[in-house]
Each structure stands twice: as structure tokens, then as C-alpha cells.
Write a structure and sequence with these properties.
The complex is a heterodimer of chains A (243) and B (280).
Chain A lengths: L5 E4 L4 E5 L6 H17 L4 E6 L3 E6 L5 H13 L10 E9 L8 H8 L3 H9 L3 E6 L6 E3 L15 E4 L3 E5 L2 E4 L4 E3 L2 E5 L20 E7 L1 H13 L6 E4 L2
Parallel strand pairs in A: 5-13
Antiparallel strand pairs in A: 1-2, 2-4, 3-4, 5-14, 6-7, 6-13, 8-11, 9-10, 9-12
Chain B lengths: L1 E5 L5 E3 L19 H10 L8 E5 L4 E4 L3 E7 L5 E2 L2 E2 L5 E4 L3 E4 L8 E6 L3 E2 L24 E4 L23 E6 L8 H8 L3 E3 L7 E5 L12 E2 L4 E4 L5 E4 L6 E2 L2 E6 L1 H8 L6 E6 L1
Parallel strand pairs in B: 13-21
Antiparallel strand pairs in B: 1-4, 1-12, 2-3, 3-10, 4-9, 5-8, 5-10, 6-7, 6-9, 11-12, 13-20, 14-15, 14-21, 15-18, 16-19, 17-18, 17-20
The chains are: A alpha+beta (243), B mainly beta (280).
Chain lengths: 243, 280
């Protein structure tokens, strides 16, 4: 396994496990697995956790002695078997309409990258994007694997409001806005899917360790899917990948 | 039943927050001044973490149809019960058909109204704290009706007075070093403690701006976890402390982490007030 390079205090009442600063799928998989193991092993001490590309934060209950817990965690990690088992990842198909009415910046991105719209869509829909973690907004998936050919810097002036479902590119990242929010991403399309829904028992559609594949749909299909979702009759397409 | 006659500036239900959903990108939220919230609850014999009404600068006007006991803590508002001034920091009997006007805060920002037995409201993702896109219904709006249990024990005949809330007078914000503090050059590290900061106008439940005129700067980082109390320094010198509604991850250098106590001290500082950091 790839052990964290250090474990430190993160203010009072929380602990930070740190790996080498990198956007690296192998490290993300380690963090996803270790997060699960630590929450089970230290369920009395750990109230909640969250993680990003190369750090895992543990939020503790008030009675926990942080230094003692750090020692216990170091021992626990040292005793773990060397191979973290990676689960079969589920791949979600995310329908996206790249029509100009949804892709507010798609023309601009195409001009900047000197690509035709069809080519941009082809490049964006080709990869399987792993979900590294959820952050920034409720349910917002940080995705890896964007093709460098369409990497585009954030807009210099962010928008006051980007609508939920907007699919965007910011630097070398691509992602989907899960709720209405201000933001500086280049918006190239929109999905009718709700990635975050408080009404659902599990409010977040995508989990770290899943992957997604974008699927281009037209305006008519977008309306169809929206109606089905409102009725509760839409099933998201997904399949397993033997990685 | 309470009827909201006037909602006030930014009035919402808050408790200790959504503690278990950070890994879904859900902000913790919760009362900005947790100390005042817990005090308000203790004054009416509630569980410490019972939901309270958080008032911001300009408080609401509430009509109480039935009798009850409430308590008010936090910033000092000019509170009138049935047009008579009352003081905060004590358990107060509210007769049937009463009107409570919170008025404006004379110092500090956030005031808290706890009701004995709690408000009859629904939780969202395990918490009664308002957050715009997750639990919009937990913000108080004009005309809203809120139920509560009528107090059946009128004669709990003891006086309950809160201790003086020290954190309003202090200008010292206690901090621990953040994950990126050691990457700053030594001179900048010293300067951060030798500077007086002015609370910025745009401060809100998501973050408090700490204005200064020094040439501070820190490089961006790969997106990392952050929490309420994390102080970020941007490449162009902006210094801000993330507060209760802050997002769960961020890409700016995390140079300090406020202690739990320091968060409520900072929460009650108004725009224009000055603070300094103190290392603990």
C-alpha cells in the first residue's frame, strides 16, 4: 500500500493524513480504502471524515486525545496487509446535451482550442473519468482523466450563477455543478440528472471510486429524460468495470 | 404557535450543524456562535444542541400565540416583549398572545432565541441548520408559522442568569498553525502575528475577510480538505477565515486553524472591528 507520508494535527480535534501532493489515481484509491478502514476501526473516535486528492481529514469527538490517536493510527496502518483491495468500480453514464443553449461557453472553448464542436464533444465523451472525491459543492465530483486537448483555464470573471447540471472545464479538470452556484468554469453542456438530491435516502449520486462516462444527447432527449426524472421513472445507466 | 411578523436580516434555525456529511461536500453549517447557542439552550433546560433561532444584526418580530419560556443570548439586541424592553441572558416567561421584537444588535452580530422544549421543525440530513440549497425551509420568512410545545410547568421558580459573555470584548483570535504555515518564509510567519486585521464588509456565514495592507502572499495548493476556522491566504494577499457555511475543500494555502473558542470570538466581530492572531 502507499502509506501517508505524515499524520499531523489539523487544528484542535482533527487529524490530517498526508500523501505526496499529486493528482494520482493510485493514491486516490488508497485514500478511499483507508478512509473506510479507519472509520470502522476507530468508530468511537472519528465523527466524520473528508478527503481530497492527497489528504484525508479525520474529525474527532471532543473526548479523543489526538496524539494518542495518531499513534494508534500509525500502528494500524503499519499492520495492514500490503495490498489494498480495489473494488469493481461502477461506471455511470451521464447524458449531456452540448447544445449552445446549455453550453454557454462551448463556442469560446472551441475557438480557443481550434476545434469543431463535434470534435470537442468526441474528445469530452471518450474517456472513463474516475471520481477522486466529492468536494467544493454538495455532491460535486472531482473527476480525473480530462484529455489535455480540451483543458481550458477558468474564466477570468466568474459568473454569479451557474445552474445545477452544468458540465464544465476548468484548467485540467472537468466536472458537473450539482447545485446552482457562482463559478468560473467554462460551461460546455448540461445534464438533466440530479447529482445531489436531499429528498433521496442517499442524496449523492456519485461516490469516490465510481467512474463516469459522458454521453451526448440532443435537446429532445434532454426534455424526455427531464420528464422521466420528474415522474421518477428514469433509470441511470451503469455498468461494472473489471479494473 | 409562533407567527413570524417580520423575518429580520438573516434569521434561520441552527443547531450544531451537519456533522456527518462533509465527505459528500455538504458544509457543516450550524450556529456561528456555538457557545451562545448552547448557553441559550441550557437556560431553558434544553439539550445543548437543540435547534435555536439565529438572528443577524436586525432581528425578527415574533408573535407567540401560547405561553412559553424562552431565552436569548449572544449579541446584545434591543429586545422588546410586548413593547417593554427586556434583557437577554436569562430565562423569560412569554405570556400568551405576546409579541417579541428582537430589534437591532448593539454590539456583536448573532443573537440566539431558544424555546423550552424546542421548536417543532423537520431536520434535513440529520440537522436543523439552515443552508440555502440543502435546507432552504429552515430560514425564517414573513408569515411563517412555527409550532412549539406549550409550557405546562409555569412555576419553575428559579432565576436563571447567564454568565457574562467574555468573547465580545476580546480582540485576540487564538490559532494553531495550519498545514501550509511551515511553507511560508519565516519573516512572513512573524508578520502574520504582528499585524492588526480589519474585519471586511463582505464577511458572512461562509467566510470572514481579514483586511490588511501588507504584501502577504502564498501559492495555491492542490485542492485539500478545509473546515470552519481554517484561515486561507491567497496569492494576491487576501486573508480569510472560513466559517460555518464554508465549502469542504479548497485550493488556497491553509495557514492557520482557529480554536473552537476563537471561531465564536471572530463570528461576533462586526465589519470594521480589529483583531490580531495569537498563537496557542
Amino acid at each position: 500500500m502507499i502509506k501517508p507520508t505524515k499524520i499531523t494535527l489539523f487544528g484542535s480535534n482533527s487529524i490530517l493524513l498526508v500523501w505526496d501532493a499529486n493528482i494520482n489515481l493510485a493514491i486516490s484509491k488508497e485514500i478511499i480504502a483507508l478512509n473506510r478502514l479507519l472509520k470502522t476501526e476507530f468508530s468511537k473516535e472519528i465523527v466524520a471524515t473528508n478527503f481530497a486528492y492527497h489528504e484525508l481529514a479525520l474529525y474527532l469527538n471532543n473526548e479523543t486525545n489526538e496524539s494518542e490517536l495518531i499513534s494508534s493510527i500509525e500502528k494500524f496502518i503499519n499492520n495492514l496487509s500490503t495490498k489494498i483491495e480495489s473494488e469493481n468500480s461502477t461506471i455511470f453514464k451521464i447524458p449531456v446535451c452540448y447544445d449552445e443553449s446549455f453550453g454557454w461557453d462551448i463556442d469560446e472553448v472551441c475557438k480557443t482550442k481550434d476545434l469543431k464542436i463535434e470534435k470537442l464533444i468526441e474528445i469530452h465523451t471518450k474517456p472513463i473519468y474516475p471520481v477522486h472525491f466529492i468536494g467544493f459543492l454538495p455532491g460535486f465530483p472531482y473527476l480525473g482523466g480530462l484529455d489535455k486537448k480540451i483543458a481550458t483555464p477558468r474564466k477570468s470573471t466568474p459568473r454569479q450563477k451557474i445552474l445545477a447540471g452544468a458540465v464544465g472545464i476548468a484548467g485540467s479538470q472537468t466536472g458537473i455543478y450539482t447545485i446552482d452556484s457562482p463559478g468560473g468554469w467554462n460551461i460546455i453542456g448540461r445534464t438533466p440528472l440530479k447529482l445531489f438530491d436531499v429528498q433521496q435516502e442517499n442524496p449523492v449520486l456519485l461516490q469516490p471510486g465510481n467512474s463516469i462516462k459522458f454521453e451526448s444527447i440532443n435537446l429532445a432527449t434532454y426534455s424526455e429524460i427531464t420528464k422521466k426524472i420528474e415522474k421518477g421513472s428514469y433509470s441511470i445507466k451503469k455498468y461494472k468495470n473489471n479494473d | 404557535m409562533i407567527e413570524v411578523l417580520k423575518a429580520g436580516l438573516n434569521t434561520s434555525f441552527q443547531d450544531q450543524g451537519r456533522l456527518f456529511h462533509r465527505d459528500k461536500g455538504v458544509p457543516v453549517s450550524g450556529a456561528m456562535d456555538l457557545y451562545a447557542m448552547k448557553l441559550a439552550n441550557r437556560l431553558v433546560d434544553n439539550n445543548e444542541n437543540e435547534a435555536v433561532i439565529e438572528c443577524t444584526l436586525m432581528g425578527p418580530e415574533l408573535f407567540f400565540n401560547e405561553e412559553c419560556y424562552i431565552s436569548i443570548t449572544g449579541a446584545e439586541f434591543s429586545i422588546k416583549l410586548n413593547n417593554k424592553l427586556i434583557s437577554s441572558g436569562a430565562r423569560v416567561y412569554i405570556p400568551p398572545k405576546s409579541t417579541l421584537k428582537m430589534g437591532n444588535a448593539k454590539n456583536g452580530i448573532y443573537g440566539y432565541i431558544a424555546i423550552e422544549g424546542g421548536y417543532a421543525i423537520n431536520s434535513v440530513l440529520g440537522s436543523f441548520s439552515h443552508y440555502p440549497t440543502i435546507a432552504p425551509e429552515l430560514k425564517l420568512t414573513k408569515g411563517q408559522k412555527i409550532n412549539y410545545q406549550t409550557s405546562s410547568e409555569k412555576l419553575k421558580n428559579y432565576s436563571r442568569v447567564a454568565p457574562i459573555q467574555q468573547h465580545f470584548s476580546s480582540d485576540k483570535i487564538d490559532v494553531l498553525k495550519g498545514p501550509e504555515f511551515s511553507k511560508l518564509n519565516v519573516d512572513l510567519q512573524k508578520q502574520l502575528f504582528n499585524t492588526s486585521y480589519t474585519i471586511g464588509q463582505t464577511s458572512n456565514r461562509m467566510s470572514t475577510q481579514l483586511e490588511h495592507s501588507k504584501p502577504f502572499s502564498a501559492s495555491e495548493i492542490i485542492t485539500c480538505p478545509v473546515q470552519p476556522g481554517t484561515v486561507q491566504l491567497t496569492p494576491d494577499g487576501k486573508l480569510m477565515c472560513l466559517m460555518r457555511d464554508a465549502q469542504t475543500t479548497g485550493g488556497y494555502a491553509r495557514i492557520f486553524q482557529l480554536t473552537a473558542h476563537a471561531i465564536q470570538v471572530l463570528a461576533q466581530k462586526r465589519a470594521g472591528e480589529k483583531v490580531i492572531f495569537r498563537a496557542v
